[in-house]
Design a protein that fits this description.
three-stranded antiparallel beta sheet; cell cycle; mainly alpha; E2F transcription factor-like E2FE; transcription regulation; about 10% strand; single chain; 10 strands; DNA-binding; elongated; about 400 residues
Length: about 400
DNA sequence: TGGTCCCGCCACTCC
DNA sequence: GGAGTGGCGGGACCA
């Protein structure tokens, strides 16, 4: 359960978003030469718990970016796997659609005209979103209920909502209701809705960080909604999965500042760069834990806030300093980001994970963090000198003729 | 105050 | 039986 009774000074949950974690994950692996992905290595490199990696990996696997290889090991397929995965998903959905003559789920779930308008279903019968296309996936797997509820499966169902119709935008409420499966049991639906909505947020975070999805709001009621960016929102295009908006490679990410000003890896959003988008914050547990500890040690909350502000400003400075050089892994960056073209060894592969881990050991490259630690070091030196001096004075009072030669570290 | 989503408990699966 | 996996929901954070 979440920590209770503790206040996280200098901590922002935004900095740990699943979307940003995904961005950093992709930034770490989306390069030539990557063959396998190890969960433990990834978790330690990204400074997050293993549990979070499972979330990312499940979603990425469901869209063809990864393939499970063995325990703790995944094969890296990369963005090139997405078109095929989407194609398969669409074919699967259409097949299900044809097996079970459709009941338009949109008209059942979206019982008001405005919602239906927003839902924007096509007149094209092939493109209509049917109950079966979404729900039969569930009914055929009743036995394996656990798997049925997996994040990966939910991701696929969610994507199918867009793939088998010309649905461009779907509200969070509707998505959760549709994905619940049993639209005929409103009480049961409501009961599960809250839980599933949480998962949708997780999924949306990840998909948004890959630029496949965009979070938006319904114009009429400002209710949260998701917009599919994968194919320009037209039914014709939806038939050609290859029209998928190509997810950005790490080089295409830009350094950006979150609402708190932290430099972060952010996919170039095609629109609305002002509002907070998913996956726009740094994910750095290690740093935040340091802040937490520091704040507990000195107990000076205002000081921490000031330092955070300095950090923010420093990040901005770091951003400027880095200029157009690729993108920033939050306040960290891999020590050595090797690209194939930069590597003389064409056959180089990161199969030696110890070497890989060493190569990608995050190191502080952020000016602000450097300043912050320098500040602590200076404070420590000052304190140490003072303490030593007082100690000397005390000693001199007792042994006036003796002096110490201790120096601060 | 409602939306968002991190966090970690713990049930389940696999070896 | 222990390690790996991941569903789930409480509750903190944010606008």
């Amino acid at each position: 359960m979440a920590e209770s009774g503790t206040v996280h000074y200098g901590y922002s949950r935004k900095q740990k978003s699943l979307g940003l974690l995904c961005t950093n994950f992709l930034g770490m692996y989306d390069r030539e030469g990557i063959v396998t992905v190890g969960l433990d290595e990834t978790a330690s490199q990204l400074g997050v718990e293993r549990r979070r990696i499972y979330d990312i990996v499940n979603i990425l696997e469901s869209i063809g970016v990864l393939a499970r290889k063995a325990k703790n090991q995944y094969s890296w397929i990369g963005f090139k796997g997405i078109p095929q995965a989407l194609k398969d998903l669409k074919e699967e959905a259409l097949k299900e659609n044809s097996l079970n003559p459709s009941t338009d789920v949109a008209t059942e779930v979206l019982d008001n005209e405005e919602e239906v308008k927003t839902f924007n279903l096509s007149h094209n019968p092939n493109a209509s979103l049917s109950t079966s296309s979404v729900l039969s996936v569930k009914s055929k797997n009743v036995i394996d209920q656990r798997r049925e509820k997996s994040l990966g499966q939910l991701t696929q169902k969610f994507i199918k909502l867009f793939l088998v119709s010309d649905v461009d935008t779907i509200s969070l409420d509707d998505a959760s209701r549709i994905l619940l499966g049993d639209i005929n049991d409103p009480s049961h639906m409501r009961e599960n809705s809250a839980a599933k909505v949480r998962r949708l947020y997780d999924i949306a975070n990840v998909l948004s960080s890959m630029n496949l999805l965009e979070k938006t709001h319904q114009s009429q009621n400002r209710k949260p909604a998701f917009r599919w960016l994968g194919f320009n929102g037209t039914p014709d295009n939806s038939k050609d999965v290859a029209v998928l908006a190509k997810p950005l490679s790490p080089n295409q990410f830009r350094s950006d500042r979150s609402s708190r000003g932290a430099v972060c890896a952010t996919p170039l959003s095609p629109k609305n760069p002002i509002k907070r988008t998913f996956g726009t914050d740094i994910t750095n547990n290690a740093e935040m834990k340091k802040n937490k500890v520091a704040s507990l040690v000195d107990g000076n909350h205002k000081k921490m806030k000031t330092e955070r502000d300095e950090l923010t400003e420093g990040n901005h400075t770091a951003h400027k300093q880095l200029g157009s050089k690729n993108y920033v892994f939050g306040p960290f960056e891999p020590a050595k980001v090797i690209k194939q073209e930069e590597s003389k060894d064409e056959g180089m592969r990161y199969q030696d994970w110890e070497n890989f881990a060493a190569d990608f050991q995050p190191r502080y490259q952020n000016q602000a963090l450097g300043d912050l630690f320098e500040h602590y070091v200076e404070a420590w030196k000052t304190w140490y000198n003072k303490a030593t001096q007082e100690c000397d004075n005390n000693k001199q009072q007792h042994q006036p003729s003796k002096s110490t030669g201790d120096q601060p570290p």
